[in-house]
Amino acid sequence: MNGENFLPVFRRWGPNCLLPMIFRRFVYMGCRGGLCLLLQFPFLKIPAQTPGFSVSHYNSENGLPQNSIKGIERDRIGYLWLATEMGLVRFDGSGFRVFNMANAPQLGTNRMVGLRMQGDGTIQVDAENNLVYTIDNQGTLQRGSTGASRLQVLNRGYALYDSCRNRSSRGEIPGWALPDVRSVYRSVLNSFLYVQGRYYYFNDAREFISADSTIRSFRKITFTGGLAAVMKRADRSTVPLSLLQDGNFIRVRWGGTIYRIIMSDSISARSEPLITVGDIPNITVCREWPAEHMVVVGTMADGLYIFRKHFFSTLLLRDPEANVFYAQVPYGPDGVLTKKAVLFPGRTIPVPGFTSESLLQTTGGHYYANRWLESHGSGIVEMDTGLRETRFIPENDLRVHCFRQFRDGSIWLTASNHFLGKIENDRVDWIDFPEGIPAEFSVHSFIEGDAGEIWIGGNRGLIRFNPTTRKTVYYNELSKTEIRFLYEDQRHTLWMGTYGKGLLAQYQGRLIGLPEDHNHYLSTVHCMLGDDKGFCWISTNRGLFQAAWDDLYAYLEGRISSVYYYYYDRNDGFLSNEFNGGCTPSGIRLNNGKFSLPSVRGLVQFFPDSIVPVMPDAPLHIDEIMMDTLRMTAAMSSIRVPRRVRHLQFTVSSPYFGNDYNQRIEYRLGETDSNWYTVQRDGIIEMNTLPAGSYHLQLRKKAGFGGQGYIRADLSFSVDAAFWESRVFQVLVLIALAGLFFSLARARIRYLVRRKNQLAKEVYEKTREQLLLIDSLEGTVNEL
């Protein structure tokens, strides 16, 4: 396709154009002049969009005890182990745990030399002074038996060099068999490899040499593939070169790239690029774990680098101000038509400046777009498969929100201040707003339903409309919900993406709200795209989610209470977490199978069927328990917490090397607590001054899609009662209270007796006085 194919788009404004002829000619000449300038550069170059890697760098400033990485291995549980000069380090994907002489008494030194996986799955830890330790299949560090350590293997490298130098000076071996002395002086760690009984190294001409374990038989090994080509072109004396071991595999760092080396036979090896490391200095070890899409690189003095593969790419325009995209449709096998340009991987072709928030590709391959220059120059543009304008339908002040083609081939649309319209005979037949819906209802999107009705979503909810009978059903329960996306699947379920209320479904006559993720990123849903592996992809303002259709339906049917959403963000390869909606279509499948989603920084594209999520399916572990300042492991059969302990702390971990948003560990104390609480990223659960009693700490995390349920772990412990909470103390208190009550009762009785006697005495005295008075009165009477 050349630029001339686009001239008719500018030239033809339609037979009924209302623009004055002079102005129309001016616009045409101006556009033509601008287009001719653009056509001098028909392909605007875009940076290559091959999948890359995100890089995380760790050193002594953000977790490592020291920056020299002498070995890297991964145990069967999934933890990554690092050998450093300040101890052995375990990495779970988000945090480091250091084992040294201060907290691991079994260690006799902090200076680790290397790590090696054994046949039984244990890891041998080689330390200075020929000390050997093991990490068993439960991740426990133990003192090992004396054996051939990494240090001894390294010493073999020095012995190899000395032997070759002596024998070369005597003329017993050819000069090319002598190792490069500069590499030996620099670092024997990345100058020699001892793999499956053979030595590998480079000579001073940077030829690859292999020697047997007796240092008597030497071979030159010739590279084929990518490394062979760059070694021919480069100045060999100045390019960084090192040998790196990945288990039983050989890696070569040449310049800024690490290559896989696959031995073809005894004298040749195929090479292929593994990863670009740029100018990272003094790389000592390189390990690849394809299942996690991860490459781990250790250095002599610059810490640890973790490379995670990207599966997403982004198409961009050269103008950084123009990379906010909305509606798009497929063009060709791998192209995308937007209102700004046609974009392909690696190049872009300009198109006329449409104003559409909606684009349409018909089943016949034609394209519909909206053009608006001013209110009197707007309308609908139809283009053929070569993007040549075939028809212009003028419509005053037209701003299209949504184009759709129905099953009968008819073209429908909605626009500002309009309900629905159908293109008939080079004009739009508009349908007025039906009665019974809010006057301020604005249509955002619509689709043709399986029953021949039209589902309409807008700023005030949902409408079901029959275009034949004009029967209208308005869903009042959604009157405060803004619906921007509609999709009806093969099960006749209507899915709705809302702005602020998440994902909704109209399923078997019921309106159901789907659960959101724990940070509520799914409150805004722009698009749902289904792939061929049973998953749907959901774009939002805060990233991209993947969910299993079976899980969504299990929730709709009440078989599960939550849905596992796998989350992707800019660390997975796109340039911004903010995807765009409010347009039609807001997500498409290209003709080559790629998905394409608009964002505020380019078009995000990916092959959905090639992406294998890294599931958080490793077991949960309680690493240690802190009781105030007392540290203990959770491996003890019974854990008793003294009453004097005021602060109780559990450290929880589970190895995971994907996006940490996808692993959420929860806990609760006993089944009587219905609430589950999120364990923070540092894995620490803190509890203060628990009452005496028995407790059951329960942990869980979602294992992934497909109803896999939860991975669980638990720990029982008890908090000792204080003396005043013991039964003895309680009995003594009861006895004391009984004695007190008895004493009070006796005192009360004594008091009452004394009071009684006192009253009796008073009565006696009063009676005697009364008798004397009576006798005196009787005497007086007798005298009278």
Description:
This protein is of the alpha+beta class and 784 residues long. It is built from seven helices and 57 strands. The strands form 13 sheets. An eight-stranded mixed beta sheet has the order 10-11-12-13-17-16-15-14, with helices on one face. A hairpin with a 2-residue loop joins strand 10 and strand 11.
Please give a quick description of this structure.
This protein is of the alpha+beta class. It is 16% helix and 37% strand. Residues 1-51 have low confidence and may be disordered.
Label this structure with key terms:
784 residues, alpha+beta, 8-stranded mixed β-sheet, 5-stranded mixed β-sheet, disordered N terminus
**Unreliable sequence segments:** 1-51
What amount of the residues lies in strands?
A: 35-45%
Major β-sheet strand ordering: 10-11-12-13-17-16-15-14
What structural class should be given to the helix and strand makeup?
A: alpha+beta
Number of strands: 57
* Rg calc: 40 Å
Number of helices: 7
Mean pLDDT: 87
Q: What is the percent of helical residues?
A: 10-25%
